[in-house]
Amino acid sequence: MNKNYNFAFIDEGSKREIRRTILKAVAIPGYQVPFGSRELPIGRGWGTGGIQITLSLIGPDDVLKVIDQGSDESVNAVNIKKFVGLCTDVRTTVKTSEATIIQTRHRIPETPLRNDQILVLQVPIPEPLRIVEASEEKTKKMHAEKDYAPMWLLLYESLIKYGKITLGTEYPLMVEGRYIMNPSPIPKFDNPKLNDSECLYLFGAGREKKIYAIPPHTLAESLAFEDVPFEKESFKGKRCRLCGSEDTYLDEMFDSSTGEKMYQCSDTSYCQEVRGCI
Amino acid sequence: MPSITKIHSFDEVFDSQRLFRRILTAMSNPGRSVSIKEFAGKLWGENPAMLAFAITLLDNEVGYCVLEDADLSEEIAFLTLSRKENAERADYIFITESALLEDAIKKAKRGTPQDPHKSATLIIKVSDSGAYELRLKGPGIKGAVSLMVPRIVREAIEMRDAENYEYPQGVDFVFVSDAGELLSVPRLIVREAY
Fold this sequence. Notes:
heterodimer, A: 278 residues, alpha/beta, Rossmann fold, 2 domains, three-stranded antiparallel beta sheet, 7 helices, 12 strands, B: 194 residues, seven-stranded mixed beta sheet, 6 helices, 22% strand
């Protein structure tokens, strides 16, 4: 452990503020609580919101897993793991079931999470209404008044123009019937995992200085119309080329010399577990 | 030379982290009480569990109010350097006497529709053990949960309901007992129809 810094890098005063913010976020599910995002030795927009939450939660008894687009081995995940390791000495793991804190970007693990686990999501744009309204002052007012008509109109227009809702990631949810929330750029496939879950989800946006949460067993419904139900990505008839799973989120790969398309689990540690590699 | 001893043995880095995680567990799983006894044991005075809560979350960035308990108020100021405020402006209100609860709830900040986070957290001391059955539901609770609570918990929820807050405005409760148990009832947690 690098002894030149406080345990978990951030000073205690900053941790206290982030902890107070987390508690408020849990008390008002889906509401984006502003906080004084701290400087980190990483550029804002590279997961600093998630890192600040993780550093404020973590203690010597924790086991940390970090994933980036489902992979434990990609650059963002490896470097965050190294950084947290340097300033805490906590054990890291790739096994979802072993972790007490999982920091992630763009995916929720396939393995169902437990009540004693916390999933921390890195969020680039926390404001779900940003695609319909550029002004922060106005979106804050829209949330206050529960004025979500422009969002519904966007979905409706998409339906009229293209015959389906074309939002691929960051598909908005309604939390406890009150707040529309951005689940971060996870695929629609992962949206249902946020509803009535066992674990606590915390969302951190470092650049935008917001923290929000979905506690366990909270109603988080993907937006849909009565006659047009929510649909997640379908991989019907496709399976992972390595582990053979048919019920996971698959990445498509392309061999340019043969023109062959292949599919592989996006959650690499789940895939390895199914194959008995870890 | 006189020897200098620390008045408490609460570790501001590691005990704060562990206690915060217990409080977070309680806050995200309302109705489940968590033990903070080992942390309270590291502080002193009449209300060590409240001091443990204060040292973990309070500092000079926030304001607090202790109703009619000058000793506790001084102890919190001494320990956290947090600002003393009146009940209308405090971010954290500590209540050691059940008779003061109603007044505190009436005065507590409830936030605004735009900034519901600018609302108060009430930390309420519980002295007797659970004798009343309460059935709660809301986010964090699977279906509904039944628990035996002291009278003050039930009264606090009734008094809060009488305020008719329009969500997301509201106040959040944290109950701490002499035995070192902590129970949380955030604003969205309601009694199931009775």
